[in-house]
Amino acid sequence: MKEACIIFIFPGRELGVPMKILIILVVVLTMSTKKAKGATRAFFVFGDSLVDSGNNNYLPTTARADSPPYGIDYPSHRPTGRFSNGFNLPDLISQHIGSEPTLPYLSPQLTGQKLLVGANFASAGIGILNDTGVQFVGILRMFQQFGLFEQYQGRLREEVGAEEAKRIVNGALVLMTLGGNDFVNNYFLTPVSARSLQFTIPQFSRYLITQYRNILMRLYELGARRVLVTGTGPMGCVPSQLATRSRNGECVAELQQAAQIFNPLLVQMTREINSQVGSDVFVAVNAFQMNMNFITAPQRFGFVTSKIACCGQGRFNGVGLCTSLSNLCPNRDVYAFWDPFHPSQRALGFIVRDIFSGTSDIMTPMNLSTIMAIDSNMY
Ligand SMILES: *[C@@H]1O[C@H](CO)[C@@H](O)[C@H](O)[C@H]1NC(C)=O
Ligand SMILES: *[C@@H]1O[C@H](CO)[C@@H](O)[C@H](O)[C@H]1NC(C)=O
């Protein structure tokens, strides 16, 4: 403590002019290096387990992917907190835009220059609503993820100055993945839930959309200017639902219908807020269709099945969670689903391909290649 004080006070009082010039030069040089390093676009990630890269490892929650065989195909072959056998959706997007992977915001490694790459605030188990995922206890709900995003921006300003920090945030690509848990881990969690007594599925979907709109507008206020917003996947087709609610492995109609009510409302809402803010800030990603492609024709994508999870137990390997005691398939690349809820790394690759080059019916109003081309002139 004492030493720090001495160093701090001493130069300010005693500096001669040449020394001052030198210091200014050093500062200028450091600033320009920082700018050059930050030249690749920052990437921010918010949402649930589909995009959590390890925040829950640092939280008191049961929603975690920090033990084997999670991460078995990751370069380290170790669990990282990603709900995947290898890379997850944000990793694959980072790779495509030529950035290093964004660290979980709670990781102690996220300091200094690493802040310029962006940050991942996602937390497995959360939803649009605060009462979604209560069973998982200490997870980061959306308002908390945004609180941390504000804290991040303070740290970024300290690192690069206010003007550059604003440029980085405004110029960033943002991914927001939410909504599945509001159905699976809330409305449909128990045969009768508080939300299912309160709302029909169309009413609940409209309620979710009004809350989601507030979330996206808050994200805009916080400086986001290019946001990929994924709709819910085909929730009725995941091995977990096949195991518990399907007779012969057909997708569960009630959940599929819920997704097909919610997703078009989401597209419409993103259109409305884009016209409100006067720019195509929000891009709706039709994750439902992207998943259905390989779920309905797994062989065409080189999968032997889209019904049985690689890691799990019971019917369709869809009962309970993937743990070290579960059945584990030898080749993860031939399974569309890694665990009872999450696609395999290879399946995610097909989703990312569609995010990049999909037509405007699945990437509305435009795909990520178009976004990258437009934005390269802007920031
Ligand atoms: C969730 O809780 C926070 C903090 O109490 C509140 O600001 C926010 O409006 C709530 N969100 C919803 C969707 O109810
Ligand atoms: C999407 O991306 C591809 C490039 O991969 C481009 O040729 C195509 O026109 C884009 N489609 C739309 C609808 O933006």
TrEMBL record:
InterPro entries: GDSL, GDSL_Est/Lipase, SGNH_hydro_sf, SGNH_plant_lipase-like. GO terms for biological process: lipid catabolic process. One of its GO terms (molecular function) is hydrolase activity, acting on ester bonds. Transmembrane segments: none annotated. Keywords: Hydrolase, Lipid degradation, Lipid metabolism. Belongs to the 'GDSL' lipolytic enzyme family. This is Uncharacterized protein. It comes from Clitoria ternatea.
